[in-house]
Specification:
Strand content: under 5%
Order of helices and strands: HHHHHHHHHHHHHHHHHHHHHHHHHH
Largest sheet: none
Number of strands: 0
Shape: elongated
Oligomer: single chain
Structural class: mainly alpha
Helix content: over 70%
C-alpha cells in the first residue's frame, strides 16, 4: 500500500521544516550560555554540521559512483548477512556501553522515579491496597503510572526487587527500541541508512546517560517503535495476488491492541495512532484486475485504507477500555477519564509564572480538589476548568509562553547530564571525575542532537518532490508532540521518544541524498555523452564543409586558369557531344574540285 501525498502531508512537511529551523535557532542561541567562550560553541556546531553534510554528500556520491547498492543487491544473501552482522555488533556494543555506565554511575530513585519503584514493589508484594492508599489515589488521577510500574513489578518478581534489576531492564528496553528503529529505517530508507540510524540511536549520549534512572521512557519508546515497525510491515504486505488476507486483518487488530498497551505506559501513544490514521485512511492498495466477487472478502477489506484504520481504532478503543477497567479494579478507585484526564497537566502547562513546568501551587490545588471532592475525576475536572480560565489570557502572553515552552523542550538535549548532576549531588555521590565527564557529555549531547535535527529536516525536505512515503507518519508524530506540549506540562526530557524519530528521519534523509547524488551522476553522464556526441557531429560537419570548400577552391582555380579537361568531363559524363562522336568515327572527306572551264 502506497501512502498518498495529500495537501495535509505537504502542510506537515512545511510545519516540520519550520519547527526544525526554530529548534536550530534556539539551540544556537543558548548553546554557549554560561561558558567561558560563549561564541565558540555555536561556531563549532556550524562547522560540525557543514563537515557532516560534506562527508554525507561525499560518501553518497562515492557509493553512487561505484554503484555499491546495485552491487549488494546482486548478492542478496551476502548483503543480508553483512547487514545483520553489523546490526548485531552495534546492538551488543550499545548494550555493553550502557551496562558499564550504570555500573559506574549508580543512582537511587528520586521524584517520579521513586514513585514508579515503590509502586512496583507494592504490586510485587501484593500490598498496594493495604500499604499504598496514597499511591492508589495518585494512580486514579494518573493511570499511566500503573502501566510502567506493573511491568517493572513483573520483572522484579522474576529477577529480584533491586534498583539494579530495573536499570538493567531499561537497558534491554533501550536496545529493543534501537532494534525496532533499525528495522523501521531499513524499510523506509534501505540497509545502509538503517544501519546509520541504528548507530546514531545506539550511542546517542543523552539516552545512555539517562539509563541509570528508573524512567518509563525506555519501555514506552520500545513499544512505540514496535508499533511503528509493525505498521510499516502491515502496509508493505502485497495483496495484489488476490489471496485471502485473514492474517493481515489479525495483524491490524494486534496493532490496535499494541497501541493501547503503549498508551497505558504513556498517553502520548495516541499521537502515533492519530498519525497512522491520517495517512492510512485516504490510501488504497492495488488488487488484481478481476471481478470483485471473485476476490476474497478479506482481500477487498484490506485494500481500503479507511477500513484498516477503522479496525485499528476499534481494537485500540476496546483494549483501552479493558485496560482502564483493570487498573480501576486493581487500585479500587474510579479513574479520571475523558477530557478531565488531562486537567492537571493542562493547568500546569498554562501556568505562565512557572513557564509551563511543575510548580507547587498547582500541585496543591490538585490535591486540595481531591480532598474536597474525593474523586479523581472531579479533581481533574476542577483543574481543567481553571486551565480554561488561564487560556483566556491575552494572546501575546500566551504566544510568549508557547514559544518559551518550545525552546525549553527542543532547544537542547541536556536532560541526561543535568538530571544526573542534580540527583548525584543530592545523594552525595557526585565526584569531581563524574562532574567533569557529565559536563563534557552535555556538550556532545547538544552537538549530536542539533546535527540530527538538521539531517532530519533535510530528509523531510527531500520528500517534497517525491512520491508519498510513510515517513510522513514519524514527522506528524513529532508535530503532535510539539502541539501537545505547547498546552500541557513541559520538561526537556519529554522529547525523549522524539530522538528516535530524528534518527529515523535522518536516515531517510541519507537515503534520499544518496538517490539525489545518483541522479546527479546519471544526469552528468548523460550531459557528457550528449556533449561528446555533439562534438563528434560538429567534427563530421566541419569535415564535410572543408571537403566542399576544397572542391570549390579547385573549381575556382581551374576557372582562373581557363582550363577545361574535356576528356575528363566526357569520361565522367558531365559533358556529352554527339557530333564529336560522329566526327571521331568518320574522317572528314575533302571536297571535290570543279572541272575547269576550257572554253
Amino acid at each position: 500500500m502506497q501512502a498518498r501525498k495529500t495537501w495535509f502531508a505537504g502542510l506537515c512537511v512545511f510545519l516540520y521544516l519550520c519547527g526544525s529551523v526554530y529548534t536550530l535557532l534556539s539551540g544556537l542561541s543558548t548553546l554557549g550560555e554560561g561558558r567561558e567562550y560563549p561564541y565558540l560553541y555555536p561556531a563549532g556546531l556550524i562547522v560540525l554540521m557543514c563537515a557532516a553534510l560534506f562527508c554525507a554528500v561525499a560518501v553518497c556520491t562515492l557509493c553512487a559512483r561505484f554503484r555499491l547498492a546495485e552491487g549488494l543487491s546482486s548478492h542478496p544473501l551476502a548483503a543480508s548477512a553483512l547487514e545483520w552482522g553489523l546490526g548485531a555488533a552495534i546492538l551488543l556494543a550499545s548494550f555493553g556501553v550502557r551496562m558499564v555506565y550504570i555500573r559506574h554511575f549508580p543512582m537511587e530513585p528520586e521524584s517520579d522515579y521513586k514513585t514508579y519503584y515503590e509502586i512496583a514493589q507494592l504490586i510485587n508484594r501484593g500490598t498496594l491496597l493495604e500499604d499504598g492508599a496514597g499511591y492508589c489515589d495518585y494512580v486514579s488521577m494518573f493511570p499511566h503510572v500503573y502501566g510502567y510500574s506493573s511491568v517493572l513489578a513483573l520483572v522484579m518478581r522474576v529477577f529480584g526487587s533491586s534498583v539494579w534489576v530495573g536499570q538493567v531492564f531499561n537497558v534491554f528496553c533501550a536496545v529493543a527500541a534501537c532494534f525496532f528503529l533499525w528495522r523501521s529505517a531499513a524499510m523506509l530508507a534501505g540497509r545502509a541508512s538503517g544501519l546509520a540510524a541504528l548507530a546514531l540511536a545506539a550511542f546517542w549520549p543523552s539516552q545512555i546517560l539517562y539509563n541509570n534512572f528508573l524512567a518509563a521512557e525506555y519501555l514506552f519508546s520500545a513499544m512505540l517503535l514496535f508499533c511503528l515497525w509493525l505498521f510499516l510491515v502491515l502496509v508493505r504486505v502485497d495483496i495484489s495476488d488476490g489471496e485471502p488476507q485473514t492474517g493481515l486483518l489479525l495483524g491490524h487488530i494486534f496493532l490496535g491492541i499494541a497501541l493501547a498497551m503503549t498508551s497505558a505506559i504513556r498517553p502520548m501513544a495516541m499521537l502515533l495512532l492519530i498519525s497512522i490514521l491520517l495517512y492510512l485512511v485516504p490510501s488504497q492498495a492495488k488488487l488484481p484486475l478481476r471481478p470483485a466477487n471473485d476476490l476474497p472478502v478479506s482481500a477487498r477489506v484490506m485494500s481500503r485504507g479507511w477500513i484498516r484504520g477503522a479496525v485499528i481504532l476499534a481494537a485500540y478503543l476496546f483494549a483501552s477500555a479493558l485496560t482502564t477497567k483493570s487498573v480501576s479494579f486493581l487500585v479500587d478507585r474510579p479513574l479520571a477519564g475523558g477530557s478531565a484526564s488531562f486537567g492537571y497537566n493542562l493547568l500546569v502547562g498554562l501556568n505562565q509564572e512557572s513557564f509551563g513546568g511543575w510548580n507547587q501551587v498547582d500541585a496543591d490545588y490538585l490535591y486540595d480538589a481531591l480532598a474536597q471532592t474525593g474523586s479523581a475525576q472531579l479533581a481533574q475536572a476542577a483543574c481543567r476548568d481553571l486551565a480554561m480560565q488561564r487560556l483566556k489570557a491575552p494572546l501575546p502572553s500566551l504566544l510568549n509562553l508557547f514559544f518559551h515552552k518550545y525552546s525549553v523542550l527542543w532547544a537542547n538535549d541536556d536532560y541526561g547530564s543535568t538530571w544526573n548532576l542534580l540527583f548525584l549531588d543530592q545523594q552525595g555521590t557526585l565526584t569531581q571525575a563524574r562532574q567533569t565527564f557529565l559536563y563534557a557529555a552535555r556538550n556532545l549531547n547538544n552537538y549530536v542532537y542539533l546535527t540530527a535535527v538538521a539531517f532530519s529536516a533535510l530528509g523531510v525536505f527531500l520528500t517534497v518532490h517525491r512520491r508519498g512515503t510513510w515517513a510522513y507518519v514519524p514527522a506528524t508524530l513529532f508535530l503532535g508532540t510539539v502541539a501537545m506540549h505547547l498546552l500541557v506540562e513541559n520538561q526537556n526530557r519529554y522529547h525523549f521518544h522524539a530522538l528516535y524519530l530524528f534518527a529515523l528521519l535522518a536516515a531517510v534523509g541519507l537515503h534520499l541524498l544518496y538517490e539525489e547524488c545518483g541522479d546527479y551522476l546519471v544526469r552528468g553522464r548523460a550531459a557528457r555523452t550528449r556533449v561528446l556526441e555533439e562534438k563528434q557531429a560538429e567534427r563530421a560537419a566541419m569535415a564535410r564543409i572543408e571537403e566542399a570548400q576544397s572542391y570549390c577552391a579547385q573549381l575556382q582555380q581551374q576557372k582562373m586558369e581557363g582550363q577545361f579537361d574535356m576528356a575528363s568531363a566526357l569520361k565522367s559524363g558531365h559533358v556529352r557531344v554527339s557530333v564529336s562522336e560522329a566526327v571521331e568515327k568518320e574522317p572528314e572527306k575533302e571536297p571535290e574540285k570543279e572541272p575547269e572551264n576550257v572554253g
